[in-house]
Sequence to fold (233 residues):
Amino acid sequence: AQKITQTQPGMFVQEKEAVTLDCTYDTSDPSYGLFWYKQPSSGEMIFLIYQGSYDQQNATEGRYSLNFQKARKSANLVISASQLGDSAMYFCAMREGGSYIPTFGRGTSLIVHP
Amino acid sequence: DGGITQSPKYLFRKEGQNVTLSCEQNLNHDAMYWYRQDPGQGLRLIYYSQIVNDFQKGDIAEGYSVSREKKESFPLTVTSAQKNPTAFYLCASSPLTSGYSRGAYNEQFFGPGTRLTVL
Fold:
């Protein structure tokens, strides 16, 4: 069974609008961390944001925020005020308990239109 | 500024050849990883290492080999036993304990990748 599910293979958004990229996860471990990475066409994976399972507040990093709904096991990435440079693949990942190895979703391709 | 380097950026392999992909980091990270990325499949773990001279197989280790003789280096060899090696290969590293200003969440830092094509 997939531990990380990203159901949107592709998303389109107008420049300056907000966009939400979906991520659901599956774990029985009460301690886990959730990550989002961006992969531009150059190929390098860039860390964006982290949410711990015990964090009381949703994580934010600049224009990125994580809509963490623990009961629904979802960790959606919200990008506010989209920019053309946000066009990329976005990957959600989860690391459980004592493991230091994350599991990645299949990614969502985001295209920002001018 | 610290980071991860991978070389070469593009690599072409003939049938039956072994090729080695280089990965070097100067972040003083203990853990290093190799991933394979195919279109539409996300990242799949090939090998990982927590400490020098020790490494473990990931989900798709068949046809690959690694070594970890130095903390900074984790080369990946794609052997002739790997029947479908054409893919994008990413190397990553991470700290194993929090406290670093970078890597505060023990997140992975990735290199720029190597694109391997079989001729």
In short: Chain B touches chain A through 25 residues (CB under 8 Å). The two ends of chain B are 36 Å apart (CA to CA). Chain B is about 0% helix and 45% strand. Chain B has a mean pLDDT of 90.
